[in-house]
Write a structure and sequence with these properties.
Number of strands: 7
Structural class: alpha/beta
CATH architecture: 3-Layer(aba) Sandwich
Low-confidence stretches: none
CATH class: Alpha Beta
Number of helices: 7
Number of domains: 1
CATH topology: Rossmann fold
Mean pLDDT: 91
Largest sheet: 7 strands, parallel
Order of helices and strands: EHEHEEHEHEHHEH
Shape: globular
Helix content: 25-40%
């Protein structure tokens, strides 16, 4: 049994062009249910968000969705999950998801997924939380971002210790072990003005 009881998954509200992305999202959902780990996610019924949530539910798992009230149409909110919480804003949504999760995983997605991954990692850098953060890098989707971060270290804009806050995972079966054994620093190095 994993020490991770709830995993927050960030992913696209679109399906993407590669069917492998939806297959990976479904595999993550089945893996979470099989290990008794609750999915925490953005509450959508469409795209990869819907795929991962449906897979958890179909396999008998538990899903908590958090969605901003009035931002999306009722059809987009997933009504077939264990619990769907409506909050007042995107900020409240992200805070609630962070509070409810023991770790964070990004699957493929667009600007929203990137923003959530960047923000939760920045929170770790600032010491707001000490929970592991990972990307499921199947097919090299996250490679450009990881290379950018490596370049930011080389350019002196990111400390190597903070670069290590994001763990790269290349196999769905390794997700819980990789995140469960990834211990970000509880007290990160102090930031300088040029690192924020």
């Amino acid at each position: 049994m994993s020490a991770i009881r709830s995993l927050c998954v960030y992913c696209g509200s679109s399906m993407g062009r590669d069917p492998a992305d939806a297959a990976a999202a479904a595999a993550v959902g089945r893996m979470l249910a099989a290990n008794g780990v609750r999915l925490v996610y953005g509450g959508g019924a469409v795209g990869l968000m819907g795929v991962v949530a449906d897979a958890v539910m179909d396999a008998g798992g538990e899903v908590l969705g958090v969605i901003p009230k009035g931002l999306f149409s009722n059809e987009v909110g997933h009504t077939g999950i264990t619990e769907l919480i409506e909050v007042r804003s995107m900020h409240e949504r992200k805070q609630r998801m962070a509070d409810e999760a023991d770790a964070f995983l990004a699957l493929p997605g667009g600007l929203g997924t990137l923003e959530e991954l960047a923000e939760i990692t920045t929170w770790a850098q600032l010491g707001i939380h000490a929970k592991p953060v990972g990307v499921l890098d199947l097919g090299g989707f996250w490679q450009p971002l990881l290379e950018f971060l490596d370049g930011a270290v080389e350019a002196g804009f990111l400390k190597p210790a903070n670069r290590e806050l994001i763990v790269r995972i290349t196999d769905v079966d390794d997700v819980l072990a990789a995140l469960g054994h990834h211990h970000p620093p509880t007290v990160p190095p102090l930031l300088t003005a040029d690192e924020t």
